[in-house]
Write a structure and sequence with these properties.
Two copies of one chain form a homodimer. Chain A has helices spanning 8-12, 22-29, 48-57, 70-80, 92-104, 119-127, 144-153, 174-182, 239-245, 256-267, 269-292, 313-325, 349-372, and strands at residues 35-36, 87-90, 110-114, 131-135, 158-162, 189-193, 215-220, 233-236, 296-297, 304-308, 328-329, 341-345. Chain A has 373 residues and is an alpha/beta fold. The first copy, chain A, has a seven-stranded mixed sheet with strand order 2-8-7-6-5-3-4, sandwiched between helices. The longest helix of chain A has 24 residues, at 269-292. Chains A and B meet through α1, α2, α3, α5 and α9 of A and α1, α2, α3, α5 and α9 of B.
Chain lengths: 373, 373
């Protein structure tokens, strides 16, 4: 018996996982979380029409889903007023990020992102064997000028920008992004991750320009639409770019129930408006809770609020640990100076009532722990 | 405005799609199929317990699914009496085939398969930039000796074998596969695609040997379990091999409803036994229908029957077209000499009653068409 030879790229990859899920933490802890506010899910849930459509679809799950994702792509295209051949559906933005890197970044070429930005993107870049160049945040925002400069100097093939940003919740006005887009060097593909755009101020979302093959807009049903479990994301771009995805995507990879649920969710825009109102209210309440404890909530255009704990990464980690011990699932940025913060997803009134009671306790515990360390 | 630079591999790929779905054909025809017997789905559907679990899970679809797929992997591991770290869950076998190629076949290295075997595997090999070497079938079976010989001579990194085979339905006894496995050259990974093993004779399925890192066993919930729409496949192998997948898989790629449905389906083995009985009966009935029209059904261990139409590929194509015109969705092998056949998935009694009436008509139409051509 011998051994298989692994690819050079995979052999050298570390066995890292982008995010440990709350379920794994619950198994390790031996008890469930009371509040699930760490994964930027939408606890308000999807449209009842989407739930109804998924329930109706369940008995039909013996059928493969349409590999062209026709009905959903048509609905997305109509929503954005673009032709359907400008839209590709994928297994969440995560899946599309992997495909985009495969389409545009040969092994050894440079990909630019922000230091502390979405780890799953970095994971896909590593798996493609491309070289990641990380640009520091500036004032808790992705530094558009520095990102552009790095892309130019390093002859990048892909540039990743998220707007609003995760994990900070910050955003740039459309005009700034449009300046970045206009200045993109030839050969670069901009991945504009807009997972959180549905909850952002309207002026944070540039108009979609399908004539520009250098820009891919990434959207999802996981956040405002409340369908994280469905694993349905999509990308909008020029037909020349979008058709490249058909060469590499898993054509039968989209699940039937999720696809049907996403279609129904998109068709229920009044519900989306209502949910966004809940999310905006929850952001304000989380900010109030933070301020009540003497912490500084950062402005957020996303479905979470990032809270500056007022000290270093070790202190914020102590606060997070104290929250986890009190059965609150939250997360925090991992890279300095962002790591002085914790990140709390929007919850329902009852969730935030509990959070408002637990945060002061957790802060006290963290202060005691750091003082005695 | 410039253009993004595409990767060398993707730039050179043809814009080919592995399979056109029945929905696309229905849109082109302007009317639905009456019989859906072309995609080897399980028309008997999943366990009612799986349907119930999916219905119950639908309102919770705002949560991401556990990225470790813990509960499902534990159930799969218990079912096969292996440790859970021998199991990885993916977006159908299709998704796992793409990952397996990424793990084991550097661009430019050789991958061996049978000429006429599963096109989606070839699609993934092309997207990886590996070189596909195709070995002819022998007597409508994958030619194990010739495949092994090609793997040895061409220094292959990956060897693909399906058992039972799609599109022919043929299979090898476990003893022959075990001889192949024992003779694998060092450095080769065998992908043993067993999508159809649940409907095969028991002696067609080798025992799982997790001590051998050269063999990956690929299974699915899409066929006998009746959950094609759920997109849940899995691979079983040595922990050393399985852990490589964690370096490249889309950790949050598995949908929640499908994962919960698959778990419930696996836990209802009595239902699986009942469905397999229906499938075996349907195979016999399709064979009878074929023989009644003077055609030769091939022996099948799968959930379909491949029917030798007794002439060349052009005639079989005419038969298939005549079936499609009569609203029967079926498919056929694409490569000679397999292409003399059509492939019909197992249906319910009422489906096969209709098929039994339509096949003679379609044959007459095909004979007339070929005679007048």
């Amino acid at each position: 018996m011998g051994r298989p030879t692994l690819t050079r790229i995979v052999r050298d990859l570390p066995a890292l996982v982008p995010f440990v899920g709350p379920e794994a933490q619950e198994r390790a802890r031996g008890r469930p979380f009371v509040l699930r506010l760490g994964a930027n899910e939408n606890v308000f849930g999807p449209s009842p029409k989407a739930i109804g459509a998924m329930i109706e679809a369940a008995p039909q799950n013996w059928m493969y889903s349409d590999p062209e994702n026709h009905d959903l792509r048509e609905a997305i295209a109509a929503h954005h007023r673009v032709p359907a051949d400008c839209v590709v559906v994928g297994e969440g933005i995560d899946g599309l990020l992997g495909l985009a890197v495969k389409v545009a970044a040969d092994p050894g070429t440079v990909v630019v992102t922000s230091d502390g930005a979405y780890p799953t993107f970095n994971f896909h870049v590593a798996a493609q064997g491309a070289r990641l160049v990380k640009v520091p945040y500036c004032d808790d925002r992705e530094d558009l000028d520095a990102l552009l400069d790095a892309a130019r100097r390093r002859e990048a093939r892909v540039l990743y920008v998220s707007n609003p940003d995760n994990p900070m919740g910050s955003w740039w006005p459309a005009a700034d992004l449009e300046r970045l887009i206009a200045a993109l060097p030839d050969g670069v593909l901009l991945l504009l991750d807009e997972a959180y755009c549905d909850t952002a101020p309207p002026d944070a979302v540039p108009a979609i320009d399908i004539s520009n093959p250098q820009v891919l807009r990434l959207r999802t049903f996981s956040k405002a639409y409340g369908l994280a479990g469905a694993r349905i994301g999509y990308a909008v771009g020029s037909p020349d770019l979008i058709c490249q995805f058909d060469k590499v995507r898993n054509h039968y990879g989209i699940n039937r129930v999720g696809q049907i649920g996403a279609l129904a969710a998109m068709q229920d825009q009044p519900y989306l408006v209502e949910v966004v109102r809940h999310i905006v209210n929850a952001r304000e309440r989380i900010a109030d809770i933070a301020r009540s404890s003497g912490l500084v909530p950062l402005p957020s255009g996303a479905n979470f609020v990032t809270i500056d704990c007022g000290a270093d990464g070790a202190f914020a980690k102590a606060v997070l640990d104290a929250l986890l011990e009190r059965d609150v699932f939250a997360r925090k940025p991992g890279v300095a100076p962002l790591d002085r913060c914790i990140r709390v997803s929007c919850g329902r009134d009852e969730d935030l009532g509990i959070f408002g009671r637990i945060l002061p306790e957790a802060l006290d515990a963290a202060r005691n722990r750091v003082a005695s360390a």
